[in-house]
User: Fold this.
Amino acid sequence: MQSTETSFKKQLTLFDSIAIVVGSMIGSGIFIVSADIARVVGSPFYLLLTWFITGILTIIAALSYGELAAMMPKAGGQYVYLKEAYNSLVGFLYGWTLFLVIQTGTIAAVAVAFAKFSGVLVPALSEKNILFEVEGLKISAAQILAIASILVLTIINYRGIKNGRIMQVGFTVTKIIALGGLIILGFIAASGQSFWHANFSDMWSASTTVINKENAVVSIHQIGGIAIFAAIGVAMVGSVFSSDAWNNVTFIAGEIKNPKRNIPLSLFWGVLLVTVFYILANIAYLSLLPLKGSPDSINILGRGIQFAASDRVGVAAVFRIFGDSAAIVMAVLIMISTFGCNNGLILSGARVYYAMAYDGLFFKEVAKLNKFAVPGVALIFQGIWASALCLSGRYNDLLDYVVFAVLIFYILTIAGLFILRVKRPDADRPYRAFGYPVLPALYIVLALALCIDLLIYKPNYTWPGMIIVLLGIPVYFIMKQFSRK
Assistant:
């Protein structure tokens, strides 16, 4: 794809591509969501199994996407695959949801997480520091810092893919070293402790703990049989989102050297590396902390993983290593992790809107590259909307709503693998999906089962997301009308 000014520059190597996969996946989720998973499944074994199943599903999806990426190494990635496998409407609905909520909502959430933990080091930047109020909407210092971080990263990426690449590699390598170091230190600090044995002395006993908005326990239900798999499905909401954004590397295919080889490899190695780190991190948590606890306890061990303060399991685990310095250590780690994560999200997301505009499905100006050979207008649009979501404070709700929609688009994309094998049997496929047709079909079956599970047990996570997607249908026809004019 080209614009009137210039064309994309292929500057990203395999190592850069892996850094984008890893850096975009690891944000703040791994340090938080294990608390909710522990409450839902109530067992160390099933906590690890939830993360393991999520990792296996994500690896299968990545291997399947590899074929599509090698077959169609174009800017826009998943949007292009859906458009080619189905039609432009399906592709647009994905891009619409990506822009409206998935990408921009994630950018907003990650930016605010960065700002919140910056407030640990500089209290004036805390979310509790309300700077002003507009029509009942309170704006905190953390929200302003979040917007500033989005602005800085947007400017850096506006000035060329080289800048974004340097930023991504630097922050990804730093966060991997830091996270790996904490895992190793956690195992060392846990030596001689009894938590691992205590946690797994009754590893098959599962339970679901229901809490209210005040974080008080409402009920505890013992679960068994098929109910355990239903609980794992519900618990996977957190692990799936913590493992999401791996597909972002497909969005920037037009700027990757030898994309037919490097995108499939980066998807596999990047997802595998993150999956291993996530499982090791949870093993470290279980080595340092009891799984079960009480929200009424006044100390970290009494609260356990289930009721870590504000669900910050990572902080509780690091406290067992560094003591009173834990908050500062974890704040620095999450600041590095979230800033690097957002760089990857900002860098890659704009390429989808560029591809949509190039096809006449977004504002025409978005289909232009700036003098630095990047979609500058798309970056600006993305930054403005993500900043608006930061101010709204509703990004977390929106992200909850689209869990179901995200899974549906993953299912549709991998089903598109089968469709394109029929529609284009002679197409050049430098890489063919590993385990085809068994593994892609297994992903579709398991992901559909997860969707059904969410429909039954988490309806608040499903219907709103589908409504957001369906609202894109009239917008699509409006865009087509403007495009014809």
